[in-house]
């Protein structure tokens, strides 16, 4: 077990103040367009409160207990802060610090009269999604071609073809994770677009530093006779990634791999681009818009197909307050036992993205050759949870690399630990919890 977890310093200095400035600018822009005088007036006080948080970060002030905003989670936050002890924005553990920042923003909004349900990051999420136009249209075309060619669930498809299709769809969901607005500072738009196309996905396969895709397929084949096969996807980002996740869910249903799929969202705006419930409808509003996506040839077939899964209840969404706490998933059994049980009962629990990966691995500074099973702790051996992580590597933690020789090779290929941080490498890590 590693002795230390990640420290917040680097990220506090480079990203957090910028993220808060984004919220100040956003609310200013929205208020300027609003006709309600009271709402506009209140936006000034909110901007001042946001700026105070920004100043506290820039001046490395001590973290102070969260003020009560009437929400039931305040006590838990403050208990955790007390347990950490005296710490500042820079000296605090990274995982707590960044989670706490989003909760501070939400406290300010919760304490307002007119802005309680306002999504402070919606503008950023929307504008990035629209930039993914080419990849959305391409994937819509690819998916409808697959459906037309094979019918997906047909028995006559050869086993090898089914396996390849599973790998392709899984990798689409994997690389969809390259779009993460809280970490976007590290990637140019050109980088993003390069990561999103199908050809790029195929080329990127060699950049999966721990790839258990074959083991997942073997598990699914072995258990295909089970009557109830609910797959849970703990989402990361809205926009393009959510589109790939919904597409992946549709594929899992269409191919008969899952009998139902449940998407887990956050309860309030989190890590800039994470999916909150309203992002699902927003996804469809965008997909329906010929202004956002002018090439309608395949979208016109695909979108009603996706909607139908939601309407029939085969595809559902859920939020659990545990996802917006600062706890790692090693603490799930103690802090959210009902949710833990639900995941034990799940046919497959898929965790998308960087934050989920940090939480799965307790944000530990593990040697890269540590097995995924070991880093999962209570979610690993004997947990009964089938845990699949689909994550492009965007910060520090990465386990499951097969050997030190492989680690050395990666360090040579992408020096300075770039393979853990630049979003161009990834993991498809699976553990059956046996
Ligand atoms: Mg995210």
Concise overview:
GO terms for molecular function: fructose 6-phosphate aldolase activity; fructose-1-phosphatase activity; metal ion binding. Helix content is 52%, strand content 9%.
What is the CATH homologous superfamily assignment of the largest domain? Uncharacterised protein PF01937, DUF89, domain 3
The level of helicity is 40-55%
Share of β-strand residues: 5-15%
**What is the CATH architecture term of the largest domain?**
3-Layer(aba) Sandwich
Q: What is the CA-based Rg, rounded?
A: 21 Å
Element-level helix/strand string = HHHHHHHHHEHEHEHHEHHEHHEHHE
Ligand list: magnesium ion
Broad CATH class of the largest domain: Alpha Beta
**Helix segment count?**
19
- Name the quaternary structure: single chain
Pfam families: ARMT1-like_dom (PF01937)
Enzyme class: hydrolase
Family: Belongs to the damage-control phosphatase family. Sugar phosphate phosphatase III subfamily.
Cofactor: Mn(2+); Ni(2+)
Account of the protein in words:
With 434 residues, this protein is of the alpha/beta class. The chain has 19 helices and seven strands. It is globular. About 1% of the residues have low confidence. Magnesium ion binds next to helix 16. Its cofactor is Mn(2+); Ni(2+). It is an enzyme of class 3 (hydrolase).
List key phrases describing it.
434 residues; alpha/beta; Transcription Elongation Factor S-II, Chain A; Rossmann fold; 2 domains; 7-stranded mixed β-sheet; 7 strands; 9% strand; binds magnesium ion
């Amino acid at each position: 077990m590693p002795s230390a977890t990640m420290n917040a310093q680097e990220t506090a200095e480079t990203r957090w103040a910028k993220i808060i400035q984004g919220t100040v600018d956003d609310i200013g822009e929205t208020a300027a367009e609003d006709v309600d005088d009271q709402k506009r007036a209140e936006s000034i006080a909110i901007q001042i409160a946001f700026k105070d948080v920004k100043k506290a970060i820039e001046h490395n002030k001590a973290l102070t207990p969260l003020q009560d905003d009437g929400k039931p989670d305040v006590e838990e936050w403050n208990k955790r802060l007390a347990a950490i002890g005296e710490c500042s924005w820079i000296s605090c553990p990274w995982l707590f610090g960044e989670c706490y920042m989003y909760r501070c923003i939400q406290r300010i909004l919760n304490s307002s009269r007119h802005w309680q349900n306002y999504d402070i990051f919606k503008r950023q999420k929307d504008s990035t999604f629209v930039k993914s136009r080419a990849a959305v249209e391409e994937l819509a075309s690819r998916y409808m071609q697959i459906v037309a060619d094979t019918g997906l669930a047909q028995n006559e498809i050869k086993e090898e073809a089914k396996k390849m299709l599973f790998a392709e769809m899984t990798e689409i969901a994997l690389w969809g994770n390259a779009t993460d607005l809280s970490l976007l500072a590290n990637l140019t738009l050109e980088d993003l677009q390069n990561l999103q196309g199908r050809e790029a996905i195929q080329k990127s396969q060699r950049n999966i530093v721990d790839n258990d895709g074959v083991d997942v397929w073997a598990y699914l084949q072995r258990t295909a006779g089970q009557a109830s096969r609910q797959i849970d996807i703990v989402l990361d980002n809205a926009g393009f990634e959510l589109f790939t996740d919904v597409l992946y869910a549709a594929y899992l249903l269409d191919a008969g791999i899952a009998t139902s799929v449940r998407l887990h969202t956050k309860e309030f705006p989190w890590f800039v681009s994470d999916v909150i419930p309203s992002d699902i409808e927003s996804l469809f509003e965008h997909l329906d818009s010929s202004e956002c996506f002018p090439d309608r040839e395949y979208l016109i077939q695909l979108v009603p197909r996706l909607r139908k899964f939601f309407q029939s209840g085969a595809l559902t969404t859920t939020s659990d307050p545990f996802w917006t706490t600062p706890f790692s998933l090693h603490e799930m059994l103690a802090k959210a036992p009902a949710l833990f049980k639900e995941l034990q009962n799940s046919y497959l629990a898929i965790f998308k993205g960087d934050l989920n990966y940090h939480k799965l691995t307790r944000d530990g500074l593990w040697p890269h050759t540590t097995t995924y099973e070991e880093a999962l702790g209570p979610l690993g051996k004997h947990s009964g949870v089938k845990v699949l992580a689909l994550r492009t590597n965007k910060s520090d933690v990465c386990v499951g690399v097969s050997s030190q020789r492989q680690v050395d090779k990666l360090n040579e290929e992408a020096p300075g630990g770039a393979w853990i941080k630049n979003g161009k490498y990834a993991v498809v890590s699976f553990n059956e919890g046996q």
